[in-house]
């Protein structure tokens, strides 16, 4: 559970308004309610899914084919 709170701290430091030095895994373990945790976890999962869809929709960046390949 501590590891999950540490990851949540990392995310919240980038997105939240709590001063970074005050935001610790211990703070979340002591103060975060189960409902709050579930909402943050749901938001994290939604962002991951959105990023995956964006990644899958991006054009393939493979090597471009050479025009000489068809004439060889």
UniProtKB/TrEMBL annotation:
Ranges where the record places region Disordered: 49-72
Protein's recorded name: Phage tail assembly protein
Skewed-composition ranges (Low complexity): 57-72
Superkingdom to which the source organism belongs: Bacteria
